[in-house]
Design a protein that fits this description.
With 65 residues, this protein is mainly β. It has one helix at residues 57-61, and strands at 20-23, 28-31, 36-41, 44-45, 53-54. Pfam families: Trm112p (PF03966).
Length: 65
């Protein structure tokens, strides 16, 4: 399932309201500020803090700028 990158202009991290970036390899939306990854379900972002994955420093280094 693909993700419409145009959504990055209108969605934000539910925790800090910061910008999200698309991690193509993992198919995650990532908040750099909170170090959270949000997965997609059937192509739809699940923007719920309680369902987000907390990323390690190593995982954060792999997130594109």
């Amino acid at each position: 399932m693909s993700f419409d990158k145009g959504l990055l202009n209108i969605i934000a991290c539910p925790s800090c309201k910061g910008k999200l970036v698309w991690h193509e390899a993992k198919q995650w939306l990532v908040c750099r500020g909170e170090q959270l990854a949000f997965e997609l379900e059937e192509g739809i972002p699940v923007l719920m803090s309680e369902k987000a994955k907390t990323l390690s420093s190593d995982e954060m280094e792999q997130v594109p700028l």
